[in-house]
Amino acid sequence: MSQAYQHIIYEVEDPVAVITMNRPQALNALTTRMLAEIRHASAAAEKDERVVGIILTGAGRGFCPGMDMNALDNMSSGDGKKEDLSNLRADPGDPALGENFSTAYTYLQSLRKPFIASINGACAGLGLAIALLADIRFVERQAKFSTAFAQRGLIAEHSISWTLPRLIGSGNALDLLWSARKFDGEEAHRLGFAERLVDTGEALAAAKTYIKELASSCSPTSLQIMKAQVHRHMNMQLGESLIESNQWMAASLEREDFPEGVRSFIEKRPPKFKRVSD
Questions:
Q1: pLDDT tens sequence across 129-144
Q2: Integer angstrom CA distances of residue 129 from 143, 147, 162, 184
Q3: pTM (2 decimals)?
């Protein structure tokens, strides 16, 4: 799936795929093209057997402040022509996980591989919503966040009303949504928004190291299924999730990764697990 992108950079360095939002002059503000390119690149990474995990980051000093304001102005006024992006059409993610993971940006939670947001600077609006849909967030201390919606006359959109309170609780979520106040990486970590807090300039390297460690010691198939379990089971009753987990556990006992995991432990050597492709 070779593709020349205009608003992102897509790179693969076994076992990591990096998607870099590449409009640094606008702090990587989103365009419809960039969103389509992120989706297309995610599908490419999902199909690439070399890739164990995917990282989304931003070029320059920003992660993503949300939609480009010029694009928003065109949307509000009804002006602007739609760009033909048919060559970027892609359907990443596992459709078997259900319709909850097939709308707008929720496909990120159904990707068959870990998806990590490496947040290196300004992160707001839709950029924040996308970061919240990542499986894990690596955040630099100086990064600045804001929901921004209320100050634009908008509501909590793009699934943020579902993701944010699940990470930080309803009271903290409402505070950030109502006030649209700015908060930094330190507070993001304290609130539970950021799983990893790192120093300035270290988020991408730390995320890459994390994926390399997973690739060297963990079954990519196990990673895929655990991700599906966590995201699906948040929408299920306990008993229902247990039944499905038992079924998936029985299937895992039949896969070749299980005896390889046991043998590698006994023989005190790194495991040789099969990589995942679409």
A1: 999 999 999 999 999 9
A2: 15, 8, 10, 16
A3: 0.92
Nearest to 60 by CA among 30, 25, 96: 25
DSSP string, 86-140: GGG----S-GGG-GGGSSTTGGGGG-SS-EEEEE-SEEEHHHHHHHHHSSEEEEE
- Residue 84 to residue 68: CA distance in whole angstroms: 18
Instruction: Give the residue-averaged pLDDT of 204-216.
Output: 97
Residue 101 or 119, more confident: 119
Q: What is the pLDDT of residue 73?
A: 52
| Residue 32: both structure tokens together | 């419809």
Alpha carbons 111 and 93: distance in angstroms, whole number: 4
Contact in structure between 232 and 94 (CB atoms under 8 Å): no
